[in-house]
Amino acid sequence: MITRRMMCAGAALAPVSVLSPLSAQAQSSEARFAQWLQGVRQEAARAGVDSSTIDQALTGIQEIPRVMELARNQPEFKMTWDRYQELVVSNERITRGKALLKENRAAIERFAGPAGLPPQVVVALWGIESNYGQRLGDFEVVPALATLTFNNFRAKFFRQQLIAALKILSQGHIGLHAMKGSWAGAMGQCQFIPTSFLAYAADGDGDGRKDIWTNKLDVFASIVNYLARVGWRPGLRWGDEVSAGSGAGGGGRIVTPAGAGGPTFRTTENFKVILRWNQSDFFALAVGLLSDRIAA
């Protein structure tokens, strides 16, 4: 006869197959992510991405928890103009920008000259976006964008970026693991998001690739192409500082980044062009001021 005690003893010797709640939840999330990726595969295929690229890029990828930590915990404080300028238009960045403009002037002017774009503006954007190519971001772009989209963080926008990133890989511009960027998918030395890359990245050295990660000629050509395509007007400055209270009588939009009593800038149509790159008055002013100080 099998007694209750014997049944309990047998149960104690049997292997435990019940998952803990946490491991079951993790398996469930992984399964849902894998299933969700099937839809991405289908959409990428419809967008013209070849099956080899899709398999290489999406097979076995996993969510990146750090990406969602950064997405959900972006600082809410508003930096003052004085602090922003101190960080972004630092003396160190001005000094380095001067040296790099001198070192790369011929290469930059090869692209900037025909577009009527001052080379110092190219250097300023390069400096602000990636500290002259030193800060590119540590995240692999495809899993980062997949993480954001799967977790429904601005899902429509980031799904569009994910498909665009797969297109870039399929076109052979960069290898999968070399496609690094920020947690939000801004890539390379000019920090283009994937859709901006497809629209504006340029092949500066004629090798058939647009490598904004390691090829400075491609970086310079891409920055110039972006600004030219969105309406840069040759011969027109971005703006100038004017006396407080001068108003808009001289034409152009007046920008007072520190509020009443602070510095006042009268801007031009080319300031609007810089805003097409990043819709922040602080950013556009920093580009203009850094470019002026690099050229001085």
Structural class based on helices, strands and sheet pairing: mainly alpha
Spatial ordering of strands, largest sheet: 3-5-4
Question: What gap, in angstroms, lies between the N and C termini?
Answer: 98 Å
Structure annotation, total helices: 13
In one word, what is the shape?
globular
Poorly predicted segments: 1-19
- Average pLDDT: 91
The topology string of helices and strands comes to HHHHHHHEHHEHHEEEHH
Helix content: 55-70%
How would a textbook summarize the main sheet?
Answer: 3 strands, antiparallel
Number of strands: 5
Integer-rounded radius of gyration:
25 Å
Blueprint (SSEs and pairs):
Blueprint: H1 4-13, H2 21-46, H3 51-58, H4 65-72, H5 81-88, H6 91-115, H7 119-130, E1 139-140, H8 141-150, H9 155-170, E2 180-181, H10 194-200, H11 216-229, E3 239-242, E4 254-255, E5 264-267, H12 269-277, H13 281-295
Antiparallel strand pairs: 1-2, 3-5, 4-5
Helix pairs in contact: 2-3, 6-7, 6-11, 6-13, 7-11, 7-13, 8-9, 9-10, 10-11, 12-13
What does this entry look like structurally?
- By secondary structure, the protein is mainly α.
- 57% of the residues lie in helices and 5% in strands.
- The protein contains 13 helices and 5 strands.
- It has helices at residues 4-13, 21-46, 51-58, 65-72, 81-88, 91-115, 119-130, 141-150, 155-170, 194-200, 216-229, 269-277, 281-295, and strands at 139-140, 180-181, 239-242, 254-255, 264-267.
- The strands form 2 sheets. It has a 3-stranded antiparallel beta sheet. A two-stranded antiparallel ribbon has the order 1-2.
- The longest helix is centred in the first third of the chain and has 26 residues, at 21-46.
- It is globular.
- The termini are far apart.
